[in-house]
Design brief:
six-stranded mixed sheet, alpha/beta
Amino acid sequence: MHMGSIANDLAIEFRDVSYTLPSGEQLLSGLNLEVQRGQTLVLLGRSGSGKTTTLKLVNRLLSPSSGEVRVNGVANGDIIRLRRSIGYVIQDVGLFPHFTVERNIGLVPTIEAWPKEQIRQRVQELLRMVGLEAQMASRYPRQLSGGQRQRVGVARALAADPAILLMDEPFGALDPLTRDELQREFLVLQQKLNKTVVFVTHDLREALRLGSRIALMEAGKLVTVLPPQDFLRSDDPWAAAYVRAFGVGPASVADREVS
């Protein structure tokens, strides 16, 4: 494979990226990272390790203090267009409480001036895709369970069919059974849609289950980037500490299989 085709396979590139707060506190330093198209890169690390900062640099909610973040080969393109081409899912979902489920999901298509009937059809298609019934469209967020709200959040992020999906601990606030269900559904969706996903978590089990590669971060630096199987066997002291702390083994990776 020649260098040109390798570059074309990259959806996101961090080139020597640092991010410093106005106070002088450095949240990220010297980050070099590549995410290939169709890959799920999991950013794993403790609170304060720089995971969410890294995520927000992708859709320019933050701008690097130094270095360059390229999305589809472009470092400083139109910020509005960039954000509309990226789906964003956060832990507390951030649904608009006074909008119905249909209006929440159809937000970006409405802004993009899709015809009303096309939006309605897309909402119904997405509700099916995330395992919700058609009549949910007319409900309000307060009438939904936590798991249902998170599904709506995923549907909203997928509404305009973005190539890239950013997910910041999207299942972190859910009970273990609902979390397990949504992880399973995510794997099925990703197999079907083949999006480029950057997924933030502090849970190694979730990282092993969902990630094509795991990028371990600590104190604003990238420690190592490895496929799940290699992460389990890594002799890197930080990676080994995670494996010990979570008590995980090869079965955690086998659990990635979806029927």
